[in-house]
Amino acid sequence: YLDRLRRTEPLIRSFVHVADEEAVMRQAAEIDGRVERGEEVGELAGVLVGVKDNICTADMPSTGGSRILEGYRPAFDATAIGRLRERGAIIVGKTNLDEFGMGSSTEASGFQVTANPWDTSRVPGGSSGGSASAVSARQCMVSLGSDTGGSVRQPASFCGVVGMKPTYGRVSRFGLMAYASSLDVIGCFSSSVTDTAILLRAISGYDRFDATSSNHEVPDYASQLVSVDHFESKPLKGLRVGMICETLGDGVDIGVVSSIQAASVHLEELGCTVTEVSMPSFSLGLPAYYILATSESSSNLSRYDGVRYGNQVAADEINSLYGDSRANGFGPEVKMRILMGTYALSAGYYDAYYKRAQQVRTLVRKSFKAALEQNDILISPAAPTPAYKIGEKTNDPLAMYAGDTMTVNVNLAGLPALVVPCGVVEGGPAGLPVGLQMIGAAFDEAKLLNVGHIFE
Ligand code: GLN
After folding, report:
1. How far is the CA of 206 from the centre of ligand 1 (A)?
2. What catalytic activity is recorded (predicted)?
3. Confidence category of residue 176, pLDDT binned at 50, 70, 90
4. 298 belongs to a structural domain
5. Model-level pTM?
6. Is the ipTM of this structure higher than 0.90?
């Protein structure tokens, strides 16, 4: 893995920081020694994990993709990182992202642009683009990302890997740099659903450092996967699948639509009944999301004041110290979002924007509830298009935001969703992957993993 990382990294640029090779080899040797002595090792012993750089690691810099945190080293590990280390995982490096998770292509990173391993002239998706490209290029075995509005699922789709966005509260957010706290969740990337099941269990569960983390029991997802060796002819017999018809209409790439339709035929062959389900409020989710996410972020990002964290610009008076440090440290996308969020929350506009967006959020939640009463899972594309060219959307923020239409509703409702590769469409030297999004009821990750495992 380290050899491949070294060889491919100049082309892909997944990592903003790579662990010291000697340190990695030392950890691996220590695990080997324990195995030889017959001592117990954790279920992730020796597994090389890439970690999105908005998740705090005490032994490596953690920048959130922002110049304002360049060189910052947290004093602690995020809870999810601690859990990985306890189980023997080795953190191989910190992966690139859109600054503080704000973006859909990883081009809004303060440091570098990451390439899609399928076609290096294209984006890997975002904001967890580096975590997706790293697994896709086999630079590490699995990786962690975060998903506020699709940042695990859309890059998984663009890079042809498995991506899991858990239920809100399933994984502790302690040590995850906050973007929009009511939507953020840590998720995982891997090259198979089985690996996802193992990784998800390792990082899930209640944490006293995150008041929104859930104490719902964490099942042993991997041992509950139905064995593929003993396939009946219809292993998913009786499973009701709802295909969200609003996600297959105008503006969706024709190759994406046909891949999803082929996936639905495959699900029927496996025994599912697939019916169309209509969710009329679906298109309202995108504007509501961008109001809520920017509002929350304008508040969350006030902590970067040049005093408590990261880079400080020298000034002779405190207001210019704050102002100059922020002006200097934040990139243009982040500044735009702070302005939008502050505007939406300001006294004269609160009712027109923030309050209405919260009402839409309730509507979206109810319509998912109704759809999941009729169906065991819902399906849709993970993104309306396959990976696009680097630079194609950087001057058109609305076009970039529109690419999140398939994923943001799931965060508004706090539900879990799994993305599995389901087809390859034309474009690039080897075609471009398409991901199928499967959405489940809250805390029913086990069902999604089972369906995904049998489907893949
Ligand atoms: N692309 C969306 C945004 O820019 C989602 C990002 C995310 O999930 N972190 O807000």
Report:
1. 25
2. L-glutamyl-tRNA(Gln) + L-glutamine + ATP + H2O = L-glutaminyl-tRNA(Gln) + L-glutamate + ADP + phosphate + H(+)
3. very high
4. no
5. 0.97
6. yes
